[in-house]
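Our preliminary data section would be incomplete without showing what the modeling component actually yields. Below, a chain of 171 amino acids is followed by its predicted structure, encoded as tokens that our downstream tools consume directly.
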Amino acid sequence: NKDNIFAMVCIPWKDLFQRPQHLATQISNKNYTFLYAENYGSDLSLKRMDNIIFIHNTMLDFLPNHIAKKIIIIEPSTDGFYTYEKILKYKSKGYKIIYDYIDDFDEKILGENNSAIQLNVFKNLEKIDHDKITVTAKRLYNQLLQRFPKEKLVLVPNAVNIENFINIPSS
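Predicted structure:
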């Protein structure tokens, strides 16, 4: 549905060009609007690059419900921004949420505080009831296959196939 708007809270655009930037670029190239919400000290001004609109992460909390229902949030498993409570709040506003399971949880890589937040979300995936779960590796896919029906899971290696993110059922 071209009325859908994708959103992701992630690393600043200028720092690196990784999975979030690839997703934003490829989804926006399909003529979808992508809200790229930066969560590390970004300013509150709006910027735009083609179909990508750069916003501050707090703006997602204040969108009216009729707009929230059009938004599909891509929630990276490696970002501590998305607490269990925040995800439930977004779901209650009508946001659709794709959980993007990128890597194992390792405190050495993620940091103690982030890994505790992320692990709490991971342990509660069934309660959150994500609209779709994307997984970057076969081993991670098989791990989640023990918890979810395969219709909910999509294997999307780091070389992103954008169609896997776009084709989620509308409510």
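The chain has a mean pLDDT of 82. The longest strand covers residues 5-10. Preliminary results of this kind motivate Aim 1 of the renewal.
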